[in-house]
Specification:
The complex is a heterodimer of chains A (about 375) and B (about 90).
Chain A (H helix, E strand, L loop, with lengths): L1 E2 L13 E5 L27 H13 L4 E5 L9 H11 L2 E6 L6 H9 L4 E6 L13 H16 L5 E6 L7 H10 L4 E6 L4 H5 L1 H4 L3 H18 L4 E5 L19 E4 L5 E2 L20 H6 L2 H4 L17 H4 L4 H8 L16 H11 L5 H4 L8 H9 L1
Parallel strand pairs in A: 2-3, 2-9, 3-4, 4-5, 5-6, 6-7, 7-8
Antiparallel strand pairs in A: 9-10
Helix pairs in contact in A: 1-2, 2-3
Chain B lengths: L8 E3 L4 E5 L4 E6 L2 E4 L2 H7 L8 H11 L6 H13 L3 E3 L1
Antiparallel strand pairs in B: 1-5, 2-3, 3-4
The chains are: A alpha/beta (about 375), B alpha+beta (about 90).
Chain lengths: ~375, ~90
């Protein structure tokens, strides 16, 4: 996030970026959702408006300045406008990350009034029955309506589209839709395999050929539209041979606060064993960030094992993602297996090879997918 | 691209300039990002108010920092800021 620009790159002590997941409730059932599988367990313990305001004020005092209001679908909470307005008053630059479902003119006017700086609209598979959102007229009309509202209230149109094996071949239609909506920025981000997407990994991972085709189409739109619609294409990390610099390092810039108040160094960290994540209800954010053992667990590089420990790239990628290392190797202190230097790298390449095989059609896959819904979440929680 | 020196300058719509007490410096905020500014960059951007031109900004800085020959540095910085899309000509 920090760009060198004309400024200095001195490290600052506090978080700069807060992601407030104000609720995990969501009207959608996306198969690539990165919310925890047991997200329903937070339903009875969501932070109140005042608790959100208190936590955000404490993070702001540490220097946090970018704030994402996300979820679940943040618009499910009727106090989203209040939280945005309070945070803006504190000096945050606030970004609402929404599917657009529930964004009425009344609400967008209230957000504008409260100083909301940006709205990021996501595209997704909206229902079980109409998994392919491109065939869903209702979704298309909703998106166009929301897009008009966003423009009318003088916000840039920032679209986020999660790509995966089942929709990536529709990239042309997706980009045509984005163009019709007069999008200013479009992020085409391949699904990352955590939580629900991990459950569905074998059905979601695109083949090399699919990715290549999508990039060609994206390049064509880029050449034609230039700065009118800026396109960002994010590759799946399984196709890389060096890991992503996840969160720019553990407890370095990013603070995620879950609906139940759990403070996490990333969206996924709740899954990691042996760490006791502090709650903003019980602790000041300054203590959480500076003192708590969870936020110090993977700071710096003293926790690293080989091949990371002696690697000359360890300051660049911090050994990749702790959650991915844990999920795939069973030990969060291992190198992220995306790295070709990892002794576990074959766990990645085997999946990639599997993704090259032609498989069953989307229609046949649909009943096999895990859809993010409350019933499935409760079932998975019991397992 | 060379910047007209006598035209009013303004921050681009999505950019917000503010002082950050915790970081003890000015920053420029925009969607998904943050630019941490040096002291001199902060002094220049502080003077962009939608009315002042590059010439006005140089004059104001030369009053605030007498004796310094700032003109070319200020213009260079403003051109970079314009190229990066932080500021626009009003």
């Amino acid at each position: 996030m920090t760009k060198a620009g004309s400024g200095s790159t001195d490290a600052v002590s506090g978080p700069l970026w807060v992601n407030a997941e104000i609720t995990y409730k969501c009207p959608l059932h996306c198969v690539f959702c990165y919310n925890p599988l047991d997200y329903t367990s937070t339903y009875d313990s969501e932070l109140s408006t005042d608790e959100w305001v208190k936590a955000l004020r404490e993070a702001r005092a540490l220097g946090a300045v970018q704030l994402g209001i996300s979820g679940g679908e943040p618009l499910v909470r009727k106090d989203a406008e209040v939280i945005v307005a309070e945070a803006t008053k504190m000096g945050y630059y606030v970004n609402l990350i929404t599917s657009g479902v529930g964004l009425t003119e009344e609400r967008i006017a209230a957000f504008k009034e409260g100083g909301l700086a940006q709205i990021q609209l996501s595209f997704q598979d909206s229902t079980k029955e109409l998994n392919d959102f491109l065939s869903s007229t209702r979704t298309f009309e909703l998106k166009l309506k929301v897009a008009r509202l966003i423009k009318q209230y003088d916000y840039p149109m920032v679209l986020n589209v999660v790509l995966h094996r089942l929709n990536i071949d529709h990239i042309e239609q997706i980009l045509e839709m984005a163009e019709a909506m007069e999008a200013d920025h479009v992020e085409l981000a391949n699904s990352q395999y955590y939580s629900w997407a991990m459950k569905n990994r074998e059905y979601l991972m695109p083949s090399r050929e699919q990715i290549q085709n999508a990039r060609v189409v994206t390049e064509r739109f880029r050449e034609r539209l230039g700065n009118k619609m800026k396109l960002y294409f994010v590759m799946p990390d399984y196709y890389a041979d060096r890991p992503k610099a996840c969160m720019k390092g553990w407890g370095s810039l990013f603070l995620n606060i879950a609906p139940d108040g759990l403070a996490l160094p990333c969206h996924e960290a709740r899954m990691l064993p042996g760490l006791e994540f502090p709650n903003v209800r019980d602790h000041d954010v300054a203590w959480i960030w500076n003192e708590s053992s969870a936020f110090n667990a993977y700071r710096g590089d003293s926790w690293m094992q080989e091949p990371c420990r002696s690697c000359d790239e360890k300051d660049k990628d911090f050994g990749g993602c702790r959650c991915q290392a844990f999920m795939l190797t069973g030990d969060a202190t291992n190198a992220d297996p995306v790295c070709s230097k990892s002794p576990h790298h074959s766990l990645i390449t085997e999946q990639v090879e599997l993704a090259q095989q032609s498989r069953t059609s989307a229609e046949e896959v649909r009943p096999l997918l895990f859809y993010r819904d409350d019933k499935t979440s409760r079932t998975l929680t019991m397992e | 691209m060379s910047l007209p020196l006598d035209k009013a300058l303004a921050l681009e719509k999505q950019y917000r300039f503010q002082w950050e007490p915790a970081q003890k410096r000015h920053v420029l905020l925009y969607p998904e990002g943050l630019i941490q500014l040096t002291e001199s960059a902060g002094e220049i951007l502080k003077r962009i108010d939608g009315n002042a031109s590059a010439e006005d900004i140089v004059e104001s800085l030369e009053q605030a920092f007498p004796g310094a020959d700032l003109k070319q540095d200020v213009i260079d910085f403003l051109e970079v800021a314009h190229d990066k899309g932080w500021i626009r000509v009003n």
